[in-house]
Amino acid sequence: MQILVPFHSGHAGLKQLLGGKGANLAEMTNAGLPVPPGFTITTDVCRSYYEAGKQLPAGLMEQVHQAMRELEQAKDQGFGDPAKPLLVSVRSGSVTSMPGMMDTILNLGLNDETVQGLAALTGNPRFAFDCYRRLIQMFGNVVFDIETYQFERLLHHLKQRLAVSQDSEVSAEGWTELIGEYKTVIRKEAGREFPQQVEEQLELAIEAVFRSWNNARAQVYRKVHQIPDEQGTAVNIQTMVFGNMGGDCGTGVVFTRNPSTGEPVLYGEYLMNAQGEDVVAGVRTPVPIAKLGEEMPLVFEQLVRTAEKLERHYTDMQDIEFTVEQGKLYLLQTRDGKRTAQAAVKIAVDLVREGVIDTGEAVNRIEPFHLDQLLHRAIDTDKPLHVLAAGLPASPGAASGVAVFDADTAEAWARAGRKVILVRSETTPEDIHGVLAAEGVLTSRGGMTSHAAVVARGMGKPCVCGCEALRLTDRAFAVTTADGETVTVREGEALSIDGATGRVILGEVSLREPELTGELQELLAWADEIRTLEVYTNADTPEDAAKARSFGAEGIGLCRTEHMFMSAERVPVVQAMILAETEEERAEALAKLLPMQQEDFEGIFRAMDGLPVTIRLLDPPLHEFLPNMEQLVVERERLNGQPDADPDRKERLEKLLRKVRGLHEMNPMLGTRGCRLGLVLPDIYEMQIEAVFRAVLSCLREQLDVRPDIMIPLVGHANELKRMRELVTRKADEVLGEIAHTFRYRVGTMIEVPRAAVTAGDIAQHADFFSFGTNDLTQMTFGYSRDDAEGKFLTHYVETKLLPDNPFQVLDRDGVGTLIEWAVERGRAVKPQLKTGICGEHGGDKQSIFFCHGVGLDYVSCSPYRVPLARIAAAQAQLALGSATSPETASEEPVTSGRST
């Protein structure tokens, strides 16, 4: 196990060992950039710490003390030396960037003696005691788990007594008074004194940073961003430089490009006479970075050159933390900058145009969830808005919800189904669960690089920061609008935010749908050149089909015909069909549904002219179209209690109740549904098939290129598909007449029953395609009812790592995936041209798409708004895995499906 690496001995290639921060500090050091010296304790040590039951490994501190001696020599200072004290920061540094999720301690090495030495050395007692009070507060919070408010309350009272508003206005005597109060807090809450031995401070700080790897907010962040728990964090120990030493000092964060828009301009903020935590924590509202060019032109020019150099070196937009100490620039960190989806796309495309990266690298740089974010809704500007105030547009997108003022309430209300906007003075890492639950975030303090902004951008949440017009109280905020009106918004009242403009709006707003940008279209075109997996959509209406086609869908992989029955004017006809006592009555109802279905299919065929349309015949059990039995019983009791109730109404109700009871099944999802319904009541499927081919004829007359694929659901035995295929062929012959033997269409099945996957060779004899319905296939393979599992035990399973992922979100490769592989292999062994794809929700999930590519499926099908995501993920799968190894690829042209092949 390697314990530590000095900055000058590391490099970027050691990221897994040194963490992202340590690797980049080493890389910058060796590039000759102004990095304060230091060393990194490796991720190996973190893993060893947890394997040993949270015990630091033997020999660690001996090596740390040796490394500290080397820093003392480099700085000509002594750790704990009262005359020339060496101070260090102790900071986390995970392999995958987790901004604000773990802990940091600054100014370590100060005690009652060294603070006097620092004051004498700098001639600035106010600065020295400011550093000391910061250390005690950070140490108390990080090492002793004392709530920050215990310290902030005392600081607030001190400023009130001194009649000042800014930290920089507090005198040395004021800080000395506060330090005494802070020590009392530690003595009371931790049951011990603040440690005066600097070596003890260092050991406790290292252990605390390792411990923070498993704090609640870090665990939530890792879960959201799928970061492995076993990665661990490194610890970076670096000599301090001070941005709070006076008027020629400052600290800031700068991005080499705008992280919200991607524009190639330096973007960031800074504070004079402050330490770095003041900027990212949102304690003070910082100044735009361009102003630094006026205050410190030489430093600003050096920062611009450094930013350009780092971006060229890392070939990506960088997020740089810097400190200016007495007019000299120091770099404390660089990392690939968190960015919005819009910025991610623009930056990737611009870097290709600038010749920095190629198109494959640009595609690889886009996280599929970026595209979910990019397709954010925006506020409909055609309607009047009651704008209360404006803050900083920290993360784009618009959202409406009810105001909540703490993270716990946000989480609880969101779980109850309410949309919420989290309103805070500023967010802290402890608020991450509330940010995750909220539709958007609004803060009254903090800047574009504050915790709220960074985390919201990473999650794709709209965010407005630094809205200083808000006056927050316990469960409300007041604001005076531009026209002098004072408005109070209380918890539970409707509120909207616009993360693109920074506007805060009273009430709910109308939102409009997003559009694809030119850069995204170019990026998607590059992805299309790379990928081999086709991307279809799940669409049940012409509108959905047209939207999906505009997003690049190459066909419809699932058209659920039952959704066409759900409109208000159709439900009574469907119910009449179900309640029919005779074949004649049912035929009459079906005759009314036939032209409705035909019209539906014509609209979809027109929208998808030239592309395949996979139409799934009726899948759910019939009881889903009828009223709930319990509601009917309650209604009957109510009518029975009314002597003057209409007898005809009571008779109709009794008839309906008898039918509902007759259709009742103990487990309807495993009962009479799908092809089973088509076999028992074939006239329903006959109507749907007739509607399909009537629509075909109508569209052919319009000179449209119609490519229908008819999918039989819930097949578990080859005989079921054989019989259903015969039905399709017969109706096609009847409707199409003389062109029946020349018009090309497919008949296939949805593989959603495990037996169908196991016996795929038999079923393939009667199929032109397999579409894997992974929602039901997952339910039946695991034996989980999705509706029950996801709201109950499944969450526990994922949180406790019994399962790596929710199998309804990420395809279960070992179980469900094995069934898919079997079915593809056995089906294509019988019919090499068999077309295969998936149409469950996994069709829009990156990991699942990688699996589909790897096993040689021909397509994935997903909801319209996930089509761009699937196009990118399919290209990334090709780049990562190469061409899939499948026996054959399916024919691009439909086969004649009038006869079994």
TrEMBL record:
Pfam families: PEP-utilizers, PEP-utilizers_C, PPDK_N. Gene3D superfamilies: 1.20.80.30, ATP-grasp fold, A domain, ATP-grasp fold, B domain, Phosphoenolpyruvate-binding domains, Phosphohistidine domain, Pyruvate Phosphate Dikinase, domain 2. SUPFAM superfamilies: Glutathione synthetase ATP-binding domain-like, Phosphoenolpyruvate/pyruvate domain, Phosphohistidine domain. The active site is at 451 (tele-phosphohistidine intermediate), 839 (proton donor). The keyword tRNA processing does not apply. InterPro entries: ATP_grasp_subdomain_1, PEP-util_enz_mobile_dom, PEP_util_AS, PEP_util_C, PEP_util_CS, Phosphohistidine_dom_sf, PPDK_AMP/ATP-bd, Pyruvate_phosphate_dikinase. It comes from the Bacteria. One of its GO terms (molecular function) is ATP binding. Its cofactor is Mg(2+). Residues 517-878 form the PEP-utilising enzyme C-terminal domain. Residues 16-53, 54-286, 301-350 form the Pyruvate phosphate dikinase AMP/ATP-binding domain. It catalyses: pyruvate + phosphate + ATP = phosphoenolpyruvate + AMP + diphosphate + H(+). Residues 419-502 form the PEP-utilising enzyme mobile domain. Substrate binds at residues 560, 616, 752, 773-776. The keyword Nucleotide-binding applies. PANTHER family: PHOSPHOENOLPYRUVATE DIKINASE-RELATED, PYRUVATE, PHOSPHATE DIKINASE 1, CHLOROPLASTIC. Belongs to the PEP-utilizing enzyme family. This is Pyruvate, phosphate dikinase.
